[in-house]
Amino acid sequence: MAARLGPSTSVEHRLMGMPVEPWTPLDTCLVGKGMALGLSFKWRAGVVFAAIADVLRDAPEHLRTILPRAPGAGDTTALRLAGPPARDPRALGQALAFLGWDAPVAGSNAWIVGGGRSASGAPILANDPHLALSLPSVWYLASVRGGAYAAVGATLPGAPAVVLGRTPTVAWGTTNAMLDDGDLWHEEVDGNGTRYKVDGAWRDLEVETQEIRRRGAAPVLFRLRRTHRGPLLSDALPGAQDRPLSLRLTLHETTHDLQPFLRMGRARTAADVEAAFDGYGAPAQNLVCATTEGVAAYRFLGRVPVRPPGEPALPRDGRTSASDWTGFVPPADLPAWTLPPGGQFVTANDGHLGPDYPHYLSNLYEPRWRADRIRALLGRRTGLTADDLAAMQLDTTSLAAEAFRRVVVLPCADAIRRTRPPAVPMLDRLLSVTGDESAGAVGPALLHLTYYHLARRVFGVRLGDDLTHRWMACINLMDEPLMAAFASPDSPWAKPAVRATLLGEAMEAAARDLAARGLGIDARWGDVHTLTLRHPLAAVPGLGAGFRQGPWPSGGGPYTVLSGQYLHDRPAEQVVGASFRQVVDLADPEGSARMITFGGQSGHAGSRHFADLSAVWRAGGFVPSRLESVPTRGRALHLRPG
Q1: How far is residue 581's CA from residue 67's CA, in Å, rounded to a whole number?
Q2: Can you tell me whether residue 125 is helix, strand or coil?
Q3: 3-class DSSP state of 97
Q4: What's residue 78's pLDDT?
Q5: C-alpha 463 chain-centroid distance
């Protein structure tokens, strides 16, 4: 029975007049699938690149130089775009506006050092997954024990397992593997919209009508059509019917994605960890784990499609079954290894496999800046402690800032001094950047706004502002093409003769942006890079203030270890950060392990625990990650059968 609204019902339910409905196993499954969808980028990036390909159909060299490349892969020398030309090349790009997504980057850091590198002689593990920051928190911190199950760490509300954390003898963490987990196909659909053609023969589309209920209005009926590959994503994009695109995602496959985490709560050895994730599907993850026995290991988790040859960034030709997936990579062939005692392993959404690995995994990796910075901080250091790794999680040095200065700004400096005197003060400021992106640093504000305006000028002239913004919001896929446009002597996007002009215009536009905010070019990063934690009801007039925290000046950026990601199409309010941090020294897990999440332990806005962890989280602090004893600020809940 659904509960009636009353004094004990949450503020949110009372405001919205929504009764509390009973929780079901299906709801738990949807929590997991929703997390997988949020960590899947191909279904968003794929449509954007399909729209870009439509616009650049007659400019193959422009398209070739901006498509994301897999690590170790050679450049595409020729492109054959699947499907017939669109009647309106910009129709698909314009249809994307309907989605209205805020698609922030969801990254993560995780690393382990072997016992030969630590002061304790045991492995140390650090992990901080980066997700969208809002209220209530994504995670609920808990110590869960019952029978053979004993784990402490981050849980998802409604899911009966610790997702990230430790048992008495095993600690683990994950990062998004950035798997290319889906494909689009250009389909040929008949005039009635009920059949599609494959290998010269018509097949019936599977058609389902779904009802979307609305308060105070008639329900909306939505027609969902499916091919043998998956749903027609273009059905969700009004105006895109000229480009019917089907979608297949690994997260749509039937897999066992909750059971592995239930098994992890019983894991006591490295072999238990290995066995726990049998049958796991999505979202694909990089798992790092360490044990009190001294084992430190890495394993790739997830189902990897086996595809026929083709350009993975673009839709495939749905008119032939030769374009279909042919299966999945056998689990035994997925990357996995054990570290030597003196080793270390870092994963920060980068591509860490060499060109000899036989299977294609992805071209959606993050730039290597965060991973390289963590490796630099670790260096060849020995005697490392849990405190050392915790301090590294708060590092705000951006290697990307130095690369931008070296590749983009410095080569244009002489020409700007000669031809654009008004831009010289901005030029001098950018030439002095050190990569420090702490909240009080001077330079990052001008640099990030310059990046934004430069990208619009370089790519927007052909793609248009709206499609350029869609590309910016996809994930950090624009960085390499923008750098290449200035580094390559024959880039079609920015010829050498115009680069100084483009950069000068971008710097002047950035200065105007700062002036509009009442700031000068020496503005501190935290003056423009702020963080506000918002509940979905924060927009309610009058009451909204009780559903948000901030704004606070915030350090870090898209490419620093301390994540301070903003949407590139709307610089520079932070929307993504470390949703959870943990550090564990396996010499003494109960005594050394610590964890933290943002927000608080309650989802109720009226509770004193709604956001009481925010100050600790912002200061880089932790709460103990204990199995055997509940911290003084915690509460114990005992559930008994029957």
Answers
A1: 33
A2: strand
A3: helix
A4: 42
A5: 24
CB 382 within 8 A of CB 117: yes
Two structure tokens written together for 326: 């042919």
Query: How many whole angstroms separate alpha carbon 54 and alpha carbon 49?
Result: 8
pLDDT at 401: 97
Residues near 85 by beta carbon (within 8 Å), at least 6 away in sequence: 57
CB 383 within 8 A of CB 118: yes
pTM of the model: 0.94
Alpha-carbon gap, residue 32 to 179, rounded angstroms = 17
Phi, psi of 18 (to 5 degrees): -110, 120
Token pair recorded at residue 460 = 């927007």
Bridge partners of residue 150, in order along the sequence: 145
Question: What are the tokens at 473?
Answer: 């919001």
Amino acid at 336: A
Q: Are 593 and 625 a contacting pair, CB within 8 Å?
A: yes
Strands 594-597 and 140-146: unpaired
The single-letter DSSP state of residue 478 is S
Q: Which residues of the chain have a pLDDT value below 70?
A: 1-8, 72-89, 91, 93-106, 629-635, 639, 641-642
Residue for token digits 């683990």? Answer: 172
Q: How far apart are alpha carbons 263 and 276 in whole angstroms? A: 5
Token pair in block for residue 93 = 């790009």
Tokens (6 digits) for 383: 């005697």
The residue among 427, 434, 413, 447 whose CA lies nearest residue 571 is 447
Specify which residues 174 forms β-bridges with.
287
